[in-house]
Write a structure and sequence with these properties.
Elements lengths: L19 H8 L12 E5 L3 E6 L2 E6 L12 H15 L7 E9 L5 E3 L4 E10 L7 H5 L6 H17 L7 H19 L8 H27 L4 E2 L9 E2 L5 E2 L11 E2 L1 H14 L3 H15 L5 H21 L9 H22 L1
Antiparallel strand pairs: 1-2, 2-3, 3-6, 4-5, 4-6, 7-10, 8-9
Helix pairs in contact: 4-8, 5-6, 5-9, 6-9, 6-10, 7-8, 7-9, 9-10
Length: 350
């Protein structure tokens, strides 16, 4: 891991344990960082604050606790940061520099240093070029054939070498049933500006498809196809530079990372379609089938697509359940687009 030099400090002395607001204030200043960037761009996500500081990216976990994760203690955030680095080095070995401490130094000032009282931990990464990010490419001319080939080559090597999942066939099927129940609970909440009749119909249709395909889903496990995968394979997590970098895997819940590669690929294809490139998912799945030497039945892949679309609709609307939602106008129209994609996949199964 590259060393992180002690940063320049903020003039105001902090006399007690710093609050989250005080940490954010410090981390928003160029003088806070060893690299002394010209400016710092701050991006808030659902679980983290990301600081773009010149050629480096620093990620601070929010001190939150949900049914899926627990970042509420300093120890938990350190453990999660280290797990994030370990897991992401599988597909982004040179991007993840390491985990760095944020401390109160001898003068009671926040600093990046190896000495002082640790008050939080951050993941440090190399910044990737925006022009090669897959979501950026899809909004413009799309990836070239050579970039698509390189992506499939990278993913195929990853899935071949990935650890086979210890999940049982029964537990794998139960996970889809559990997620479907959660989808129903959230999508049918009346306060959302959503066509609830349409949502109910789509949920019922998916439930029928789940019942019809449950044995095939379980068979994917018994045949050894389910692996410890990426878990969040979206275009914004793929950089088609040379070599290809795939980052920001789902590190906080190992169970949710146990996936059929073609489930992840269907998810990626669905997200590409949401960005206006419905053709790319089919091409990736066909190429990956050749590279992996196996492909599930088409209706299983379509089920994965519909299931992922409804899951994303649910997670999108869940932002509005936060006490102070970020970008509140964004989520209901986006959820409606995911319903469109679920409907298309379900129609193709009939």
């Amino acid at each position: 891991m590259e060393s992180i030099r002690q940063s320049k400090t903020v003039s105001r002395v902090i006399s007690t344990q710093p609050s989250l607001a005080e940490k954010l204030q410090f981390l928003s200043l160029p003088a806070a960082y060893p690299e002394a960037p010209f400016r710092v761009e701050v991006i808030e996500t659902h679980m983290s604050y990301v600081f773009l500081a010149g050629e480096r990216v620093y990620k601070l976990k929010k001190p939150v606790k949900t049914p899926y994760l627990d970042f509420s203690t300093l120890e938990a955030r350190e453990q999660n940061c280290r797990e994030e680095v370990r897991l992401n080095r599988r597909l982004a070995s040179h991007t993840y520099i390491g985990v760095v401490p944020l401390v109160l130094d001898a003068r009671g000032q926040l600093a990046f240093s190896e000495e002082g009282e640790v008050v939080d931990w951050l993941v440090c990464m190399r910044r990737l070029p925006r022009k090669f990010m897959l979501d950026h490419l899809l909004r413009n001319n799309g990836p070239s054939q050579s970039q698509t080939d390189a992506l499939c080559e990278t993913l195929a090597a990853f899935y071949v070498s990935a650890n086979r999942s210890p999940i049982s066939a029964k537990d794998y099927g139960e996970r889809f049933l559990k997620e479907h129940r959660l989808n129903c609970e959230v999508l049918m909440r009346r306060p959302f500006a959503l066509d609830h009749g349409r949502a109910r119909t789509l949920l019922d249709r998916l439930n029928c498809r789940l019942a019809a395909n449950l044995s095939l889903l379980e068979q994917r496990v018994s045949e050894g196809h389910v692996v410890d995968g990426h878990g969040d394979l979206r275009p914004e997590h793929i950089c088609l530079c040379d070599p290809v970098v795939i980052f920001d895997c789902l590190e906080f819940n190992a169970q949710l990372r146990q996936v059929d590669p073609f489930d992840e690929l269907a998810f990626l294809g669905m997200e590409c379609a949401q960005l206006g490139a419905p053709w790319l998912g089919a091409e990736i799945i066909d190429q990956m089938a050749r590279r992996l030497g196996q492909k599930p039945p088409r209706h299983v892949t379509l089920f994965y697509t519909a299931s992922r679309a409804l899951l994303r609709a649910r997670l999108t609307l869940a932002h509005l359940l936060d006490e102070t939602p970020r970008e509140p106008a964004k989520w209901e129209p986006l959820a409606a687009r995911y319903l469109d994609l679920a409907e298309q996949a379900l129609a193709a199964m009939e």
